Amino acid sequence: MLDFIKKNQTALMILVLILSLTAGTVLNHKIRHLRESEAFYRWILAAAVNERLFQDDDDQSEDALLFERCTALAENYAPFDNSPREAGLSLLGSIAQNYEDDKRIWSFAESSLAKEERIAFLTLAKGQKLQFATDIEYAEAQAGGVNVFNLFFGFRKVAANLVWLEVDRYWHQGNVYRMQTLMRTCVALDPQFIEAYLVGAWHLSYNATAQLPDTPWPQREWNARHEQCLGEKERFYYHGIDFLREGIRRNPRNYKLYFDLGFGIYKQKLEDYPNAVKYLAEAIRLPHDRWVPRQLFICQELNGQYGDALEGWKDYVDRYPGSMTAVEVAPRFIMRNEGLLFETEARLLLKNAKSTANPGEAEQMRSQAAALWEKARDTWNALDDPYGEGRKLMMDALELREEGRYLEAIATLDKARWDTGALFTEFSALIMEIKQEAAIPLSVSEKKALLRESEVGLCSGMPEEERQRRMKSAETIESSFH
Question: Phi-psi bin for 55: left (phi > 0), alpha (psi -120 to 50), beta?
Fold first, then answer.
């Protein structure tokens, strides 16, 4: 045996070399396939998030066209059979809502069925034609071989940290405008640098705006991309929004990005409760901390979704029965939303009673409304806090208004708004509404408030169609008060 080996040593070495090269080629091909599939998988998740939440790319963009092809192909992928589909979303978009289905999306991305779409993705990504695949994470899928760029690619996280130190230095120097470019460079080097997105958005939306006054509406300009009236301060809010959206596309399975977008900017800064609810609802779809759903329920209440908030708080108590929040906080919010539901339903019944031509039906509606009204009062009595006391005073004022005792109603609301700061804006608006209804002169401050209110939502450069739509919407809201 040894003689055979000695005689054929060269041939055996060549055979081992051939086998090694073959194994290496196969392994390299496998690794390349996995790397390319991962890039494709990440892009599918990003495109699905855009379809579900943002819808801010052109229908004829390369991303939209390729995603359309992928969604059509997904219809024929067996693991997706019988998957639930949400109205307005594609099959892939619906499946991507649940992070537990990511394995199925991955299997689709690396399957032979999606080979042509995967190749098309890589070609478009290499040509930098895809909006959702422009970060450095796809560099290895775009170019092969060893070069300076790929060598640097291996140290991207270290480079990102060094860039972030420069961002922090610029902040302390007050160079806010210079920070933005470096922030984007940082996350381009390391697209999974979550803290960079969170802290960067905080800098833009909070620190950069801290010393800036709100821009008066007549001085704002129409921003076609965001379809909003923006001044210098407000632009920073939308820079923060864009930065977090970019983070979400690259990291669609991290709840912190959705939370900071929904709570940190839309709720706290813009008081845009529909969008706050939208993104906080996405945050709780993912593994999250216990305090995240609490903010969702609060925003649902602020958005008038009292039923959703009520069910959310009840579910929270069931999930965490021994927690301090479930014992001390949730019960009060449950009562608040129950009371607000009773109030809302009673008002709706009274409104319908006034519009119906059937006296019997009208009387029945008024009777039901009276019962709900008393349930609301009982709820506020049981709540026994400044908020509940304020709601009771408001109910008293509305009853006085129905009796034509306008001055007493106004006096009652005036007391309530100063006793309950959380209701000040709502009660101030109600006072002006009653004064206008009773032809009572407004104060100077109230006239100025109405003037400011008439300017809200309108600015220079706004398309005429949008201006008319907003004015009509304001008129509809105003008419609903009477």
Answer: left
